[in-house]
């Protein structure tokens, strides 16, 4: 393994690091190293304390935690913090849950850095859909069940753009909804009215990869009912692969 460090420049440098879904051991080796070397760590709510504790005691830790529908610190201000800390010459780690490019606004933050000519790198993380299903014993694809998988935001209609329900429902994919708990009734109704069988197995994985992980399973017609028993963070998985949970659960 080659340990190459981030380029050092007087203008500072930003590493956009995905912390993985919860279990701190799922951080990448590269993520581990850049966190240890950081002068400043700007982090979100879903990052585990074990991962934060990897930072040097001299590092400045800035919490910009995000909750569903509510941002502790507005996005523009987060962008400004990153720009200011980098321009001051720091090695900045921007630490996010899962993978920064999957529903993580990583792209938006990098665009801002690019506009200010600030150098950056991206350290990928294990996204919740991959981590939580692995720990739940639900293979996202399987030759007998699903040939593809789709990751979908449950923040539906937020910016006026509706999901293509018809093509989703016809696709025979595994469907993974992020941030979908509150919209579970709508998701259930749209999928069924666009042709998915109400008996289609589905699962809700709550606190995936964490010690408190819980997997609720049922039929699509029971999805919104299941969701009332679940807490955030949780993923909704729709597809026959979820029936394998009972056979393959291990965690
Ligand atoms: N960038 C993150 C996703 C951020 S959106 C990633 O790649 O995973 C936040 C949503 O991710 C939550 O609402 C939930 O749907 C999902 N999520 C994050 N961590 C999770 C976990 N440990 N278990 C289940 N779902 C999780």
Automatic annotation (TrEMBL):
GO molecular function: lyase activity; oxidoreductase activity; uroporphyrin-III C-methyltransferase activity
EC number: 2.1.1.107
Keywords: Cobalamin biosynthesis, Lyase, Methyltransferase, Multifunctional enzyme, Oxidoreductase, Porphyrin biosynthesis, S-adenosyl-L-methionine, Transferase
Source organism superkingdom: Bacteria
PROSITE patterns given in the database record: SUMT_1, SUMT_2
Boundaries of every Tetrapyrrole methylase domain copy: 14-223
GO BP term, pick one: methylation
Pathway recorded for this protein: Porphyrin-containing compound metabolism; siroheme biosynthesis; precorrin-2 from uroporphyrinogen III: step 1/1; Cofactor biosynthesis; adenosylcobalamin biosynthesis; precorrin-2 from uroporphyrinogen III: step 1/1
SUPFAM superfamilies attached to this UniProt entry: Tetrapyrrole methylase (SSF53790)
Enzyme class: transferase
InterPro entries noted in UniProt: 4pyrrol_Mease, 4pyrrol_Methylase_sf, 4pyrrole_Mease_sub1, 4pyrrole_Mease_sub2, CobA/CysG_C, Siro_Cobalamin_biosynth, Uropor_MeTrfase_CS
Leader sequence segment: none
NCBIfam families: cobA_cysG_Cterm, PRK06136.1
UniProt record similarity statement: Belongs to the precorrin methyltransferase family.
Name of the protein in question: uroporphyrinogen-III C-methyltransferase
């Amino acid at each position: 393994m080659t340990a190459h460090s981030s380029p050092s420049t007087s203008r500072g440098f930003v590493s956009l690091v995905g912390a993985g879904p919860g279990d701190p051991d799922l951080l990448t080796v590269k993520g581990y190293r850049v966190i240890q070397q950081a002068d400043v760590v700007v982090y979100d709510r879903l990052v585990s304390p074990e991962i934060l504790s990897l930072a040097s005691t001299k590092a400045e830790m800035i919490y910009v935690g995000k909750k569903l529908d509510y941002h502790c610190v507005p996005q523009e201000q987060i962008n400004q913090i990153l720009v200011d800390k980098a321009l001051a010459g720091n090695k900045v780690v921007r630490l996010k849950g899962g993978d920064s490019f999957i529903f993580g606004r990583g792209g938006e933050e990098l665009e801002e850095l690019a506009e200010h000519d600030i150098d950056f790198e991206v350290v990928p993380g294990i996204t919740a859909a991959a981590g939580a299903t692995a720990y739940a014993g639900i293979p996202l694809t399987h030759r007998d069940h699903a040939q593809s998988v789709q990751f979908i935001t449950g923040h539906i209609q937020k910016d006026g753009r509706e999901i293509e329900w018809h093509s989703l429902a016809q696709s025979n994919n595994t469907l993974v909804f992020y941030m979908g708990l509150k919209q579970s009734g709508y998701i259930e109704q749209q999928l069924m009215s666009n042709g998915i069988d109400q008996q289609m197995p589905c699962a809700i994985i709550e606190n995936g990869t964490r010690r408190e992980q819980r997997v609720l399973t049922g039929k699509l017609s029971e999805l919104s009912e299941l969701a009332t028993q679940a807490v955030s963070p949780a993923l909704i998985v729709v597809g026959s692969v979820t029936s394998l949970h009972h056979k393959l659960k291990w965690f």
